[in-house]
Each structure stands twice: as C-alpha cells, then as structure tokens.
Automatic annotation (TrEMBL):
Residues 2-235 form the ABC transporter domain. It comes from the Bacteria. It comes from Ruthenibacterium lactatiformans. The lineage of its organism: Bacteria, Bacillati, Bacillota, Clostridia, Eubacteriales. One of its GO terms (biological process) is L-amino acid transport. Keywords: Amino-acid transport, ATP-binding, Nucleotide-binding, Transport. This is Amino acid ABC transporter ATPase. Belongs to the ABC transporter superfamily. Pfam families: ABC_tran. One of its GO terms (molecular function) is ATP hydrolysis activity. The keyword Aminoacyl-tRNA synthetase does not apply. CDD domains: ABC_TM1139_LivF_branched (cd03224).
Length: 235
C-alpha cells in the first residue's frame, strides 16, 4: 500500500535520513521504533510531504506521491496524526472534527455519518463535543487528533508518537483505540518511542538508528530479539 525506496532527507548539512526503504501492506500495523533523534518524525513528514526529501521514491496505492502536494495526499487517503496532537486549541471538539473533513468531496450526509462513527469509537469526544479543545486533557487531545484524522476518511494513518506524555492507563487506552481503528480497516504506520507497546500491537517493525534502518521483521520476533530487548525494552 505504501512503499518507500532509498529515502534521503537532509536539514541543511545534517543528513537526517540516510537512504531507507520500507513498505506497509494493506491492513497491517507497521511500527517504526528508535531512540530520540533517530529520524522517525522526519520519515513521517517526508511521506506526508510536510518535508521535501532530497532523494527517494514514495508511492501510495500504486501512485507516486513523492512530488504531490500534501493536501492531495490526504485526498488519496493518507492522513498524518502529528506529534504533540496539534489540535486547534481555541476551537471546540466538534469544530476540530469538522476541519478534519475539510478536504472531502463526498457530501454532507457521508460526513455526518462519519461524525457518528467517530463518536461511537471515541465516546469521550461525544460527551465533550462543545468543549474548547485546549481545555481537554492530554489523552483526550490525542483522541481528538485521531478522531479528526478519521474524519478525512483515511485508508492509512501515519501516527507520530501517540503515547507521548500520557499516563500508563491512557497509553493503554490510546493503543486499544489504534487497534480498533486498524480492525475497522485502516492501515497504520506507527512511530513510537514506547517500543514495548508498539511491538505488542504491530504486525511488523523497522528499527531506526541515526537515520538508517538497522533491523526489521515480525514485531513479536523483534520483541524477543536480545539486541532489541537490550536497546529498546530495558533488557
Ligand atoms: P523524536 O522522538 O525526538 O522526535 P525522531 O526519531 O523523530 O526523534 P527526528 O525528529 O526525525 O527524530 O530527527 C532526526 C534528526 O534530524 C535529529 O538528529 C534531529 O536533531 C534532526 N532534526 C530534526 N528536525 C530538524 C530541523 N528542523 N533542523 C535541523 N535538524 C533537525
């Protein structure tokens, strides 16, 4: 579904991504794990075209997207949930969700049905739909960011550190939401520093170290790999 080949991303003289290749098949949860600064966010931004790669070929559902504008990529069905949530803090929950549907062209009825789908999947958002997003808790803001992305009617979600800054209980809840979203037919590329949870939920994983993929494979096998356990799972 998503194929990335020989991706290189530089920030000026800094070579942040050094020619990585990976793919995500329809229906999968694939996770990209790695330490702080390994290049996980940079990779997602290059895929969603928030950043222009120096080199590389990226295709989504068979279409090259390497030089496509970001909003066109969303229309194709690829939506990013950014790190740190980035909800519109002055707007209500409902208004944030409405903005998620902004690029859709399939009519008001389809969009209305998807509000219901999002509220069913994330009931806390329904309770708080008139609340100003900036006053939500961190976990609720993460739910809103996922809900807003679902309003784009994505085929695939790019999730950037959804567990960041959340209490262990909320981390569980967010991962369970990610699992449900995937079960409903949305393919997921998940970037996480919480390698333990990410490997539990994912089908496959890639390990990123200073801009290069150093290991890849079945997520459960990697979770039991000595090197991965020592470096990312606290032994
Ligand atoms: P984190 O979990 O901390 O977000 P990450 O794995 O997502 O880490 P990136 O944020 O992608 O890593 O950063 C990869 C490398 O690129 C790091 O060395 C970082 O310092 C560098 N970098 C990231 N953004 C910029 C920028 N805007 N300008 C210069 N260098 C940057």
């Amino acid at each position: 579904m998503l194929s990335v080949k020989d991706l290189v991303v530089n920030y000026g003289a800094i070579n942040a991504i050094k020619g990585i290749s990976f793919d995500v098949n329809e229906g999968e949860i694939v996770t990209l794990i790695g330490a702080n600064g390994a290049g996980k966010t940079t990779t997602l931004h290059a895929v969603s075209r928030l950043l222009k790669p120096k080199q590389g070929e990226i295709s989504f559902c068979g279409q090259p997207i390497s030089s496509m504008e970001a909003h066109k990529i969303i229309q194709l069905g690829l939506t990013q949930v950014p790190e740190g949530r980035r909800v519109f803090s002055q707007l209500t929950v409902q208004q944030n969700l409405a903005l998620g549907a902004y690029t859709r062209k399939d009519g008001a009825d389809a969009v209305a049905a998807d509000y219901e789908m999002v509220f069913q999947r994330l009931p806390r958002l329904k309770e708080r739909r008139r609340q100003i997003a900036g006053t939500l808790s961190g976990g609720e803001q993460q739910m809103l960011a996922i809900g807003r992305a679902l309003m784009c009617k994505p085929k695939m979600l790019l999730l950037d550190e959804p567990s960041m800054g959340l209490s262990p209980l909320l981390v569980q809840e967010i991962f369970s939401i990610i699992h449900d979203v995937n079960q409903s037919g949305v393919t997921i590329l998940l970037v996480e520093q919480n390698a333990k949870m990410a490997l539990e939920i994912a089908n496959r994983a890639y390990v990123l170290e200073t801009g290069s993929i150093v290991m890849s494979g079945d997520a459960h096998e990697l979770a039991n790999n000595d090197q991965v356990r020592k470096a990312y799972l606290g032994g």
